[in-house]
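Q: Start with the shorter request: fold the first protein.
A: Done. Sequence, then structure:
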Amino acid sequence: MVKEILEKNGVNILRFTWVGLDGMIRSKGAYIDSVEELIKSGIGLTMAMMSFTPMDYISPYGSFGPEAEDVFLTPDLSSLAIFPPSAMVICDLYKRGKPWEYDPRSTLKKVLQKYQDYTFKSSFEIEFYLLKDRKPFDDAKCFDSKAYYTNQIIPEIAKLARQNGIIPLRVIKEYGPGQYEFDILHKDVLRSADEVVIFKEIARQTAMKYGVEANFMPKPLNKMAGSGLHLNFSIWKGEENLFYNPNDEFGLSDLAYNFIAGIIEHAKALTAIAAPTVNSYKRLVPGSWAPTKIAYGYNNKSAMLRIPTPYPGMAKSDRRIEYRVPDPTTNPYLLLAAFIEAGMDGIERGLKPPSPINENAYYKKDIEDIPRNLREALNELKKDTRLIERIGKPIIEEFIRVKMAEVEEYESYVTDWEFEVYKGV
């Protein structure tokens, strides 16, 4: 029983957790004495929360307001995570006993049901900064050994993640001062998405314990590296990796190339979901180690899609593609639903990708750019009716409504940079 597990760990409140279309992780708490009953019934939640923005108000274009009825947070106990004093469980949203079509997690589950003959595997590389008073927690350089000497926060995050079934393969001191990366073991895509949410909560709580902020913004600091959420992906059938072909130059099957072609076909629309904040596009700039061109290549970190070099002796099991556009502000459920549908569209239509780019793609003028800002990306998503219909028209249209409110507030906001530059004009 969940109550007994909570008691054993000294936790009194179980957070019923969901991720909105704004990318925010939110929760409602069940007190320990009522937790078993609420696990069965769910906790009511106004539908208006799916029209909420990161600014913490309802989008003026949103479909739901205070008059909207309740849906129910229905916990998936396979996602139960305990890291005292916290405990959380990730929920699906149900309306009148059925999965709600505006719920990103239910949308991903619907996509998986559609392609149940396949097993989709994914893993994420989660980058973030440790900040104190909006400044880097340390001054360690890229891959700098001294970052590990006295840092208690990173090992504690790794330990708590492991205790909750999240297996960090690599823990890396990244490019920026105070910036770290956790590379997580691949799982089925639903669990993989859950692990992003759980990891962010563990990291934030652990950092806060030490008076530090775990910051997952794509670009929290000027003139320093951005933080990505690279998605590694492959398709399996039983024990067979369907992306693998030993006779291909890059070890990829025809099915993998079809999937890549689908991602390229829908690349501009996908960007709105993978990089869903105005801040995202301050990371996606030329020469930044983040992609700006719609291209793929073998181990090419300047391309949108990378074919990573497999680990020695693991060419078959480790053959995958890496999508480098996403950042940690994305909703991982909506991202995976959209990514799968885009790739499967390529498979179903037998699309062929262009030739791979195995040189620095940043300044190649003959390759199309991904959108340069959120408004442009949302307009590209609006135009991609084929992808919208595959994912689900209601949820994507609501996503656009939520994000347009964010764009419009930002576009009317006067920054310190503007004041300093233009005050004397």
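Q: Next, the second protein, separately.
A: Sequence, then structure:
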Amino acid sequence: MEFSAFKAFADAMPEGMLLVSGAGRLVSVNKVAERLLRKPLAEIEGRHLAQVFSLSELEVTLAIQPSFRSRRPTYLNIDCGKTSKNIQVYAQGFLFRSNANKEEALAVIRLVTETPLSSRFLELDRELVTHKKLLNSLRKSRTDLKYRTERFDTTLKSIADAVISIDSNAVIDFMNPVAELLTGWRQEEACGLHLTKVFKVFDEVTAKTVKDPLLSLLANSKAVDRENNHVLIDRSGCSIGIEYTASEIHDSKGNSNGIVVVFQDVTHARALKNELVFQAKHDSLTGLRNRRAFEGHVERLIEDSITEEDEHILLYLDLDQFKVVNDTCGHFAGDELLKQVSGLLQMSVRKHDVLARLGGDEFGVVLSYCSLEKAKTVAQGIIDSINNHPFVWESRTFRIGVSIGMAVIDSSTLTLVEPLKY
């Protein structure tokens, strides 16, 4: 069986690829795999996969057999040893029909590294262009054309990113299994539909529809790369955080031959990022803003007040009797008192006012666009609310008080130190 076509095709891919027989022996590998495994083709061709990964032949058989049964990419829990810390191994089994009309079980083993989406896309774009060229040049050889098409489709179906290909009218002509999974549309249902019918993208911050995610690409013939704040609404109405890249496909004469969109699910990664950002700006006990976020907000108000001549009031609060509760009943009681006081403060200020725990039993409040007289009324309301709130812990009752300092933020305020020194 001739596998030179596979070698030429696989060498252009950004991932390591190994072609393995049903018996587990290496038939061919691409250049990336040679580099990752640090072994040339001549050294490992014909050898059993077990020798390459330092496993038993039984372990290799148990690892790759599921891929032949499911015909879908199967993750292999194989340690690549010293080759790389960031390699994941997948297998894709299929039946190959040779020119002699003989079927043979083969598997494509992929060595996937942590490559940025944009880099993987550029490689995929080159392969799509190559594939189009092959279709045009090999029309007279239907057997060879079918052979190459099967190899290309197997590669697209085995990659971890979602891929949608559209023609020059934005009509879908291809979707890989990952794209089917994320959009909720099967390829046979989506083909022939406009992209925006299947690929519905919203801005996560504004909640507005991105009417045409490829508008700038079609207008300027430049690649589109969207990484922030975009969500995909699938067929069932569920939202999925995505990053996507789109680029035109050109034929050998430079004419546009369609567009390919590559996207991936980043819902978990984006949620984790948002959680880290929230934790960096908020107090872990009360959920209020922390001192750093509060001071940053005050500094921005000082800058804005210089030009806009607005007036804001800063309140600095210090609890009375907190140390008595903490020393008498312990830190758990002190924490509970702080959480109850935080709730009282939130009910005493307006929704757009900024409330923070500055540390220990100290709190800060910014009353935005508020006069001094109005601020005095708010401050007295806070004092009354805390004074009238008995704190009970294990049958003991404490009367808590609060001291409040007040400062004006206006065009005469020059630095953060001035309002916080009172």
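Q: Describe the second briefly.
A: Residues 117-137 form the longest helix (21 residues). The chain is about 40% helix and 25% strand.
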